[in-house]
Amino acid sequence: MRETNQTEERDDAPKRVALLILELSVGGAEKALFQLATTLDRERFSPVVYSLSGRVEDLERSLAPELRARGIEVVEFGLRSALGTPLALRRLRRRLRKDRVAVLQCFMFHANILGRFAGRLAGVPVVCAGIRVAERDAPRRLALDRLTRGLVDAWVCVGDAVAKFTRERIGVAENRVVSIPNGIAPPPTASGRTKTDSRRRMIAVGRLTRQKGFDWLLEHADAWLTPEIRRDWTLWIVGDGEDREKLERIALERELGDFVRFCGWREDAKELIADSDLFLLPSRWEGMPNALLEAAAAGRATLCANVEGVAEILGDAEAQICKPGDVEKWRVKLLRLTTDAALRDGAGERNRRRVLELFDVASTTRRYEELWTRLLALKNR
Predict the structure, then answer these.
(1) DSSP state of 170
(2) Extended strands (E) in 210-290
(3) Which structural domains are found in the chain, ordered by start?
């Protein structure tokens, strides 16, 4: 039997909002949650952050200490593998009732699925899914989303392209899909202190998985890596993940050791982007890539595969966008960007102006607040 979560509270009391995610190790979704939690209007909403994961590798790089330092409660449920899902679901349901949560906002697939079941069982008035990427390579996940879509009040998508994907591939009604882009905080000032040699730096940032397309970039290096680029530039790949050994093997086979540097996970990734000369995004699919937002906000020129979120961030930027997998266009455009400093500077300045105008954190937070307020009002009717 479904329980209720009715509480006797003043109408003007801050509504309890739970932000649920699988883990809090630093990534695009985790940064978005952090920004939302720390910028909410506390007179209207009282945030609590729920992290499902209990894996050591997630806790080592967790944003939890910084959230707690900002006065935000963080609850960790200790989920280490799929076998622990039933226990995590029960714990989450009990905690939702204990905290008298009015709005449950989930981020990413695992939190979305567990959150919608636990939220409904606990009687949470408003349950929202957070769709951060177009899961083109995950048919089972899409099928599960379709089967359980009726448990969700609103699907918050990170951009218009992801919203379109959600309507068409998951079958969600248009009036239940909302597009709210990532926000970007003011960028750091480039320091120049992270340079290790006299060459210019191009940089690619993200988890080392198939989605990010780093394997494609390295496998086709023979097509775009001219002697001049190899002499004058270096490529830093910042991030860690399951494909690291594979990527290092490709770099070794292509004899890229003097050109490519694998930096691993870096706490100062944003500063490294600001100190670079060109940002690369060869992804196969995305949502609204946070690293690209950071690069654009720092005034960096970019070269990107035209996947979800890229055109929304860069606008009409033909010199910086390629069709995914188009090796020849990538070669031509990369050659122009690496040899034409005026083109890079102009593109970087346009990127900076556009992103700081359209993707500010305050606007993103306000749109979440407006959505939750509207949904709560509908429930109260």
Answers:
(1) I
(2) 233-238, 260-264, 278-281
(3) 15-183+360-380 (3.40.50.2000), 200-358 (3.40.50.2000)
> Could you please report the per-residue DSSP string of 94-129?
HHHHHTT-SEEEE-SHHHHHHHHHHHHHTT-SEEEE
Q: How many CB atoms lie within 10 A of CB 12?
A: 7
Q: What is the dihedral of CA 331, 337, 339, 344, to 10 degrees?
A: 180
The residue type found at 313 is I
Going residue by residue through the chain, which has 381 residues, state the pLDDT in tens, using 9 for 90 and above: 444 454 445 567 899 999 999 999 877 889 899 999 999 999 999 999 999 986 655 566 789 999 999 999 999 998 988 899 999 999 999 999 999 999 999 999 999 999 999 999 999 999 999 999 888 888 999 999 999 999 999 999 999 999 999 999 999 999 999 999 998 877 655 555 455 568 999 999 999 999 999 999 999 999 999 999 999 999 999 999 999 999 999 999 999 999 999 999 898 999 999 999 999 999 999 988 999 999 999 999 999 999 999 999 999 999 999 999 999 999 999 999 999 999 999 999 999 999 999 998 999 999 999 999 999 999 887
CB 347 within 8 A of CB 302: yes
**What is the C-alpha to C-alpha distance for residues 143 and 161, in angstroms, rounded to an integer?**
19
**pTM for this predicted structure:** 0.84
Nearest to 33 by CA among 364, 370, 373, 376: 364
Evaluate whether 205 touches 239 at the Cβ level (below 8 Å): yes
